[in-house]
């Protein structure tokens, strides 16, 4: 039972971290609960569908279907996160000002919500499909199915609790810093996802360069440890990164920065010092 | 703009995929009773290697390795190709995430 609990917890944890950050990033935006719920729901349904077609996905594109699928999902999530951060760079100040004036009632927020709902949905879909396949395996094995299933359910609950904890933790950040903190978190999250996506393209045999490992810090922190896994999800920590992963990571951070600068620029307004 | 660029890049990349796919070397791992056979697989160092992983169990398994940077689900009764390397000479652990207590193995690059 404990084994099932840990595996399911680990999968739920990754999606949960992302949901926690998205919740904090949209704090005070009207209708965000509904959008995030849509995202989660869509992700759960998607996870079931993906698990059902796992075999077909694997065999597609000469056996590289799963890698391409994952690379694609991560790529879309990266674009959505960039869009969100650019949008926030442009409108964040107004939202913060409005929130101070009229409490938590902000009307202008529909755009990044769709983007973030998609991010939540994709995260749940990716991790959820693994949970579904794993639990299916347990069912298929029969014997001690019930205790393993209990473990699985407890794992989901523990993962959900962790999401709540992440959110509560982020909420302790004072209101005037929360946009910049969540923007940073989202930028690092996106960079980590881009590196993962690039690695999937490499594994698919589409990118065939820069696959050499650049350094090894697994003696310091391994991704197998819980903290290592947290850092992997949160900031894209990889103990043995390849040149390709580094390029994708840094490239995403730079593009994000440039995009946010462009979004912030308003010719008609007086320059405001940050 | 970036969305467009990404989409274009991806389309180009997908179109090129078959042309770039490399010839697979003959390395095979079999999963049976949630164990890998062979548990130690020797592969050449400093070159890309394709390993065919055959899952002869009825249940799905996830072939995973942090040091090999692979994460791949293999449904029950199917096989999948895992591309790794180029590796420096050394030992690289892998495991089956869904049955981590029994499904363990190591790739030895030399």
Secondary-structure blueprint of this entry?
The complex is a heterodimer of chains A (274) and B (110).
Chain A: H1 2-25, H2 32-52, H3 54-63, H4 65-101, H5 110-141, H6 145-171, H7 175-203, H8 226-235, H9 243-264
Helix pairs in contact in A: 1-5, 1-6, 1-7, 1-8, 2-5, 3-4, 4-5, 4-7, 4-9, 5-6, 7-8, 7-9
Chain B: H1 2-20, E1 27-32, E2 35-37, E3 40-43, E4 49-55, E5 61-65, E6 70-74, E7 79-84, E8 90-96, E9 104-109
Parallel strand pairs in B: 1-4, 3-9
Antiparallel strand pairs in B: 1-2, 4-7, 5-6, 5-8, 8-9
Outline the structure in words.
- The complex is a heterodimer of chains A (274) and B (110).
- With 274 residues, chain A is mainly alpha-helical.
- Chain A has one domain (2-264).
- Chain A is 77% helix and 0% strand.
- Chain A has nine helices and no strands.
- Chain A has helices at residues 2-25, 32-52, 54-63, 65-101, 110-141, 145-171, 175-203, 226-235, 243-264.
- The longest helix of chain A has 37 residues, at 65-101.
- Chain A is globular.
- Chain A starts with a helix and ends in a 10-residue tail after the last helix.
- Mean pLDDT of chain A is 85; it is low at 103-107.
- Chain B is of the alpha+beta class and 110 residues long.
- Chain B has a single domain, classed as Sandwich (Immunoglobulin-like), CATH 2.60.40.
- Chain B is built from one helix and nine strands.
- Chain B has one helix spanning 2-20, and strands at 27-32, 35-37, 40-43, 49-55, 61-65, 70-74, 79-84, 90-96, 104-109.
- In chain B, the strands form two sheets. Chain B has a five-stranded mixed beta sheet, with no helix packed on it. In chain B, strands 2-1-4-7 form a four-stranded mixed beta sheet, with no helix packed on it.
């Amino acid at each position: 039972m404990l084994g099932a609990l840990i595996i399911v917890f680990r999968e739920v944890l990754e999606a949960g971290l992302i949901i926690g950050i998205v919740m904090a990033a949209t704090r005070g935006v009207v209708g965000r609960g509904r959008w995030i719920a849509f995202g989660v729901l869509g992700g759960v349904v998607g996870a079931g569908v993906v698990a059902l077609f796992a075999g077909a996905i694997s065999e597609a594109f000469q056996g590289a279907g799963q890698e391409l699928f994952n690379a694609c999902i991560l790529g879309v999530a990266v674009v959505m996160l960039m869009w969100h951060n650019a949008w926030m760079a442009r409108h964040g100040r107004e939202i913060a000002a409005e929130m101070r004036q009229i409490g938590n009632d902000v009307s202008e927020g529909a755009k990044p919500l769709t983007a973030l709902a998609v991010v939540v949905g994709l995260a749940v879909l990716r991790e959820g499909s693994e949970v579904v396949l794993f639990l299916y395996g347990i069912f298929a094995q029969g014997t001690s199915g019930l205790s393993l299933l209990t473990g699985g359910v407890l794992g989901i609950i523990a993962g959900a609790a962790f999401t709540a904890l992440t959110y509560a933790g982020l909420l302790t950040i004072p209101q005037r810093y929360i946009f910049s903190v969540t923007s940073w978190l989202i930028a690092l999250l996106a960079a980590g996802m881009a590196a993962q996506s690039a690695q999937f393209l490499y594994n698919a045999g589409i990118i065939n360069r820069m696959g050499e490992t650049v350094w090894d810090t697994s003696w310091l922190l391994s991704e197998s440890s819980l903290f290592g896994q947290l850092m992997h999800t949160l900031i894209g920590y990889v103990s043995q990164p390849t040149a390709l992963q580094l390029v994708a990571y840094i490239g995403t951070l730079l593009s994000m920065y440039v995009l946010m600068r462009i979004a912030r620029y308003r010719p008609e307004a007086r320059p405001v010092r940050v | 703009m970036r969305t467009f660029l990404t989409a274009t890049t991806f389309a180009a990349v997908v179109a090129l995929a078959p042309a770039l796919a490399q010839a697979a070397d003959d390395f095979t791992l079999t999963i049976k009773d949630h164990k890998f056979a062979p548990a130690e697989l020797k592969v050449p160092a400093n070159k890309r290697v394709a390993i065919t992983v055959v899952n002869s169990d009825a249940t799905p398994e996830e072939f995973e390795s942090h040091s090999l940077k692979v994460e791949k689900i293999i449904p029950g009764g199917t096989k999948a190709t895992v591309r790794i390397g180029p590796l420096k000479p050394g030992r690289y652990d892998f495991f089956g995430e869904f049955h981590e207590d029994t499904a363990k193995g190591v790739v030895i690059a030399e």
